[in-house]
């Protein structure tokens, strides 16, 4: 049956909603019939892929439409085109069958497809005997979706897609193209509006900003050399392992020049040896996904599946992770499911409707960040995000995710005034859809990737953030491995900013944290958030003159490394960066020429080494049996002392003197008589201190020892037996 002229016009205009019904090979009672759009051709002959001539087509429309009978059944065909003296071959995309199958449809519709990153997006495959790229995108409310790119002159008429009506996914296999091809989707909404060209939500590579196209790319395949590293973490309980995390913004740790970035390979050569020498166990990167705006630091991502082009091709990041693992260092990445930006090439109104976001801004807009909120009540959106977590674990071997802004997901009234939010069905402020999403994500990654861990940046007292999210568990339990201890950070920094003469009146700012220190599996964070937006550097948060600031900072780090919980320090603070951090410039590495700054660096290095090598300091970080107060109430002297312990390990005592006075004969209760070695002293001259100490050892008799407490200093003593 010959289609009506209106259908042909729509086809040639690129507005026909079902191009596969007209194009390609169609079998009929009189044999097979071919129809193709071949712009610029004057003649066209159809050939099978095996080289058999199937028939000559006739140009029936000056706009490039060819038709004709062909031999054989429906099959992929290749057209030999001719115009004047020019000849070329075109393999017909519309002669191929679909790539996605019924099982994909079922799992996608159910929201339980855990291999979406293999199915949606752009994938280099061989299909029905031909190599090419399969494109698939979810846009259920679109009228027409076309792939446009450098392979079709960005002409939407060339490659309109097939709609899989049951799941709202559009797909097309385009033969004879490969990797490094730029593309976007041209989406026509249900009312006929042509939307701004959209980047692929599942793109695994993207152009360097300010360009925004997606790029076809092979999955990152390489010879991984990290089997031992991954096997180790799969075999242990992370709560009982040393975890000292170095938080890094990859664009400003070091820079080759003001406007540029080191590639992942160049960063690997510099950063991995440095982290190893410093004794950190983990690197945590601020978001590495593609994002358009440098000052967002990656937290406003438009390409969750694509490592940012700022640092070279995606495989460079895989090589970095592999290199870190070979050096015994784990790699965590910041992950941002809490919000997404409103850039028109991104997810916003992707098919002309509120697809990934909420229609009502009271449910779906962050006033603080001018960003949109994912619709966690939609299974396709949850599947998109859960698959992204699985993607980073599988494709890039990352060891875990630090999940940003969890509190903003948990509460419908987050940063909102009355009338600016909608209560849940029970009239409460909890966002139970977000809770279910977080639980689903944690279940998925912990079930499929042994040794993987998740860390929540959660700033409230939500119960059970790091409690397992079993089916029978309380509704609130989220299933994270760890939670940032924001209370520790706020209280202790407030204390350290006080003049020592006033600290005796605020003793509980240090002691109070132990009331809840084991209610969650905590990470103690001194993160990038504490050294931006006018907050100053950690050094400048300390009280006193310059000497006292350095002494306070060393004492504070000693307190933190001796305190129960895993450790996190933002880059630059390990050598007492003076200036507030800016993403636009490198850290001030020249400060290491100054003895005071180099002293802090050595102190952090040695803290890391002692922390990792003494099970008493890490093996019970998350359990109350690993902590015991020795001195809790000496507010007048501003002295704190506690014991860290673990089964089978030598106990370790941590003592902090937070005044500038030397306590020369301080009675320190100790649970074991005998020798206690002074393994660390923040006042040692090697770290920039005054050199006051205990000559390397103290002796306990009758349950106590008389010790020298240096000014503004932390001591770490280990029982020798």
From TrEMBL:
Subunit: Monomer.
Reactions accelerated catalytically: Transfers a segment of a (1->4)-alpha-D-glucan chain to a primary hydroxy group in a similar glucan chain
Keywords: Carbohydrate metabolism, Glycogen biosynthesis, Glycogen metabolism, Glycosyltransferase, Transferase
CDD domains linked to this entry: AmyAc_Glg_BE (cd11322), E_set_GBE_prok_N (cd02855)
Annotated source species: Novosphingobium jiangmenense
Protein name per Swiss-Prot or TrEMBL: 1,4-alpha-glucan branching enzyme GlgB
Gene giving rise to this polypeptide: glgB
InterPro entries linked to this entry: A-amylase/branching_C, Branching_enzy, GH, GH13_cat_dom, GlgB, GlgB_N, GlgB_N_E_set_prok, Glyco_hydro_13_N
Protein family according to the UniProt entry: Belongs to the glycosyl hydrolase 13 family. GlgB subfamily.
Physiological role: Catalyzes the formation of the alpha-1,6-glucosidic linkages in glycogen by scission of a 1,4-alpha-linked oligosaccharide from growing alpha-1,4-glucan chains and the subsequent attachment of the oligosaccharide to the alpha-1,6 position.
């Amino acid at each position: 049956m010959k289609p009506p002229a209106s259908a042909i016009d729509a086809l040639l205009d690129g507005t026909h909603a079902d191009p596969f019904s007209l194009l390609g090979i169609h079998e009929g009672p009189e044999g097979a019939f071919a129809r193709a759009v071949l712009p610029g051709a004057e003649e066209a002959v159809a050939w099978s892929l095996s080289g058999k001539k199937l028939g000559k087509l006739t140009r029936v429309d000056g706009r490039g439409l060819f038709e004709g009978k062909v031999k054989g059944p429906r099959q992929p065909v290749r057209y030999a085109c001719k115009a004047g003296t020019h000849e070329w071959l075109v393999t017909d995309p519309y002669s191929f069958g679909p790539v996605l199958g019924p099982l994909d449809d079922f799992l996608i519709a159910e929201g339980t497809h855990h291999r979406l990153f293999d199915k949606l997006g752009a994938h280099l495959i061989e299909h029905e005997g031909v190599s090419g790229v399969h494109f698939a995108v979810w846009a259920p409310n679109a009228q027409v979706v076309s792939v446009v790119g450098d392979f079709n002159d960005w002409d939407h008429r060339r490659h309109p897609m097939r709609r899989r009506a049951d799941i709202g996914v559009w797909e097309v296999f385009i033969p004879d193209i490969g990797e490094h091809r730029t593309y976007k989707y041209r989406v026509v909404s249900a009312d006929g509006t042509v939307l701004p060209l959209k980047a692929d939500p599942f793109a695994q590579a993207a152009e360097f900003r300010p360009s925004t196209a997606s790029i076809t790319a092979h999955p990152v395949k390489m010879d991984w050399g990290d089997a031992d590293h991954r096997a180790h973490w799969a075999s242990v309980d992370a709560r009982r392992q040393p975890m000292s995390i170095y938080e890094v913004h990859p664009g400003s740790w070091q820079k080759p020049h003001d406007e540029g970035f080191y590639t992942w390979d160049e960063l690997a050569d510099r950063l991995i040896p440095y982290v190893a020498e410093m004794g950190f166990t983990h690197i945590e990167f601020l978001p590495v996904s593609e994002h358009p705006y440098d000052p967002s630091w990656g937290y406003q991502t438009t390409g969750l599946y694509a490592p940012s082009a700022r640092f070279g091709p995606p495989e460079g990041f895989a090589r970095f992770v592999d290199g870190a693992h070979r050096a015994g260092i784990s790699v965590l990445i910041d992950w941002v499911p809490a919000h997404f930006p409103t850039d028109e090439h991104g997810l916003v109104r992707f098919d002309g409707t509120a697809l990934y976001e909420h229609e009502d801004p009271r449910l779906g807009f962050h006033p603080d960040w001018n960003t949109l909120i994912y619709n966690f009540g939609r299974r396709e959106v949850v599947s998109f995000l859960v698959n992204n977590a699985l993607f980073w674990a599988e494709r890039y071997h990352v060891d875990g995710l630090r999940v940003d802004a969890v509190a903003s997901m948990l509460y419908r009234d987050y940063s909102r005034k009355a009338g600016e939010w909608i209560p849940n069905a029970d009239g409460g402020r909890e966002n139970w859809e977000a809770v279910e999403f977080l639980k689903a994500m944690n279940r998925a990654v912990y079930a499929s990737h042994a040794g993987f861990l998740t860390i929540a940046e959660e700033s409230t007292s939500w119960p059970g953030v790091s409690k397992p999210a079993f089916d029978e568990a309380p509704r609130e339990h989220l299933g994270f491995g760890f939670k940032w201890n924001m209370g520790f950070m706020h209280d202790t920094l407030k204390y350290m900013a006080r003049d020592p003469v006033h600290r005796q009146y605020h003793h509980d700012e240090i002691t109070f944290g132990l009331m809840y220190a084991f209610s969650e599996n905590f990470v103690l964070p001194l993160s990038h958030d504490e050294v931006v937006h006018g907050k100053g550097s950690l050094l400048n948060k300390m009280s006193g003159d310059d000497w006292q600031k350095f002494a306070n900072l060393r004492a504070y780090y000693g307190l933190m490394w001796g305190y129960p919980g895993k450790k996190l320090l933002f880059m630059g603070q390990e050598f007492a960066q003076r200036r507030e951090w800016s993403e636009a410039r490198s850290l001030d590495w020249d400060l290491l020429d100054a003895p005071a700054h180099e002293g802090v660096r050595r102190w952090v290095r040695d803290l890391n080494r002692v922390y990792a090598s003494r099970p008493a300091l890490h093996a019970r970080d998350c359990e109350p049996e690993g902590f015991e107060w020795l001195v809790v109430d000496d507010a007048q002297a501003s002295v704190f002392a506690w014991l860290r312990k673990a089964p089978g390990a030598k106990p370790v005592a941590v003592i902090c003197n937070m005044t500038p006075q030397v306590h020369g004969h301080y009675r320190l209760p100790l649970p074991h008589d005998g020798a206690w070695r002074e393994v660390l002293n923040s006042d040692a001259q090697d770290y920039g201190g005054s050199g006051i100490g205990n000559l390397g050892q103290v002796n306990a008799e009758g349950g106590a020892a008389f010790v020298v407490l240096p000014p503004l200093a932390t001591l770490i003593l280990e029982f020798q037996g």
